[in-house]
Amino acid sequence: DSPTQPTNQLIPIMCKIAIITQHNPDQLQQLVLSLWSAMASTERDGYGAAWVQPNGRIGFVKSSNPRGVTPLPDFFKSFCAGQWSKSDGGAMLVHGRTATCGVNAENTHPMLLGDSALVHNGVVTSKKYHNTESTCDSELLLHAFRQGGIDEVAKEVSGYYAFGIITARK
Q1: Which of 21, 61, 79, 152 has the most CB atoms lying inside 10 A of its own CB?
Q2: pTM for this predicted structure
Q3: Three-state DSSP class for residue 141
Q4: 120 contacts: CB under 8 Å, gap ≥ 6
């Protein structure tokens, strides 16, 4: 006799996130592209990255349409032409997405709001916060964090999650 697997077993799906505290600003593109390339074997619903620019604003690049494009780095070099901005060499977030809701640019990370950018892995809900820019649950974390920091997230957001957030200030 051999054990059998249940037919309705849930298989976890997980995004990949990289949270970098410091990087060489001259290697911004190469770093992001190498991380996306490493994530490409399992994450196929979008890629994004955010960093702080020298002027104190958030720089970012993202796409929800990388499926079937090989090689990934060459695709992003052409896709992102002219969209890369300079980095201050500090914090950076990189995300490879496995979608739990619609595959589109609005739901692709980083989630952006004002001077903040967030990447998230997991599934969350909130009775207090609601989506205004997307249908992605990650937006709830961003609203809660901007309202009251990590304490507000812990109090008003339920589920399982890991996230990274950067806030730029001039």
Answers
A1: 61
A2: 0.80
A3: helix
A4: 15, 17, 109, 111, 137, 138, 141, 161, 162, 163
